[in-house]
Amino acid sequence: MHRLLLIDDDEALAGPLTQYLARFDLQLEAVTRPSAALARLAGERFDALILDGMLPEMDGFEFCRRLRAGSDAWRDIPVLMLTARGDLTDRVVGLELGADDYLPKPFEPRELAARLQTILRRTRLTPTPGAAQPAATLCFDGLQIDAPRREVRVAHGLVELTGTEYELLLMLAREPGRVFSRDDILNRLRGQEAELYTRAVDILVSRLRRKLEPLAALKTLRNAGYCFALPEKSS
């Protein structure tokens, strides 16, 4: 069972949502203030966060910023943001700050469960004995992707990526030169049809590019999509 932490000042939301998500083996715990969430995160391990955009003490966007700038364990935890409005600006800001997904309020609990299950599939898991291991390390000029360890290294050292950023890089790097459309990427990463918000892919690629600089690893093909552009490292 996956443990989730809901950070939302609407106290009436936690009870019904806890009961509903339990059907999907998702154990929900809730706090109403960011300070309480940070205290819980300091001493406990959660598999994902559900983060409201409007909170007391600090808003959800600032909380997400602090989370991604915090400890190594916090940087990798999946975050699904709830936005009171479906504004494009809210969605863009949340994704740029490192959120893995978003859902406008009001929302359908079934859609929330589906989105949580999708981002949890991308969570770093300890391999079980006898399970098939990921592909070997991928080596390119200036970049190394250690798939079994889920580590990415460039010349200046280890690159800290969110789970979604890592999955995007690995997907592109496993097929260098192949062009993936925005819908291809959303369908692969979210596991669902992607008619809603292809702009999310542009933001994700932009975040990844900044972290890999000065390497020009990701190439944009206008009106087509993205591809991985680094040559394989010669032996």
Number of discrete helical segments: 9
- List segments where confidence is low: pLDDT < 50 over at least 5 consecutive residues: 124-134, 191-196
CATH superfamily of the largest domain: Response regulator
Helix content percent band: 25-40%
Structural features, described:
- With 235 residues, this protein is an alpha/beta fold.
- The protein folds into two domains: 2-121, Response regulator (Rossmann fold), CATH 3.40.50.2300; 138-228, Winged helix-like DNA-binding domain superfamily/Winged helix DNA-binding domain (Arc Repressor Mutant, subunit A).
- It has nine helices and eleven strands.
- The strands form three sheets. A five-stranded parallel beta sheet has the order 2-1-3-4-5, sandwiched between helices. A four-stranded antiparallel beta sheet has the order 6-7-8-9, with helices on one face. It has a two-stranded antiparallel ribbon with strand order 10-11.
- Helix 7 crosses helix 9.
- The longest helix is centred in the C-terminal third of the chain and has 14 residues, at 199-212.
- It is globular, with a radius of gyration of 18 Å.
- The N and C termini lie far apart (44 Å).
- Mean pLDDT is 84; it is low at 124-134 and 191-196.
